[in-house]
Amino acid sequence: ETTTDADKAKADAEKAKEKASQPKASQSSGKLNLGYGVYEGPLRNGKPNGMGTLRYKSSHRVSQYDNKGTVAEPGEYYQGKFVNGYPTIGSLFHSDGTLRCSINAGVPEF
Fold first, then answer.
1. How far is Cα 26 from Cα 44, in angstroms, rounded to an integer?
2. What pLDDT, in 10s, does the model give residues 59-72?
3. Which of 21, 23, 34, 87 is packed most tightly, with the most Cβ within 10 A?
4. Strand, helix or coil at 110?
């Protein structure tokens, strides 16, 4: 049995149609109130994802994946990379902009 160009084109069209019908990750950018702080930057499926800034309104652990257990205080902010809602690698700054510490929490597995 031989495959003609027309058969190949039809198969490719079916694959493209199937791929297009699959739900895509929703990507946007903006501000997100997390309760304990406000995130500004890229969002994916409604969660921080990419390079962004999180300004803390109350004391909160920077990331559950940070083995140092760093707690940010009100007015401080984290600037760096987020993956699926979690800060992964970046810096924590005091409210006056001076560096408090570096964060390297790693990338959580999902």
1. 5
2. 999 998 888 999 99
3. 87
4. coil
**Percent of the chain at pLDDT exceeding 90:** 65
Number of neighbouring beta carbons within 10 Å of residue 81: 19
- Which amino acid is residue 60, in one-letter code? H
The DSSP 8-state label assigned to residue 98 in this structure reads: -
Largest CA distance in the chain: 73
CB atoms within 10 A of CB 29: 12
C-alpha dist (Å) from residue 43 to 12, 24, 89, 93? 32, 14, 17, 22
Phi/psi at 11 (5° precision): -65, -40
User: Which alpha helices (H) appear in 22-66, and where do they start and end?
Assistant: none
Tracing tokens 């495959």 back to the chain, one arrives at 3
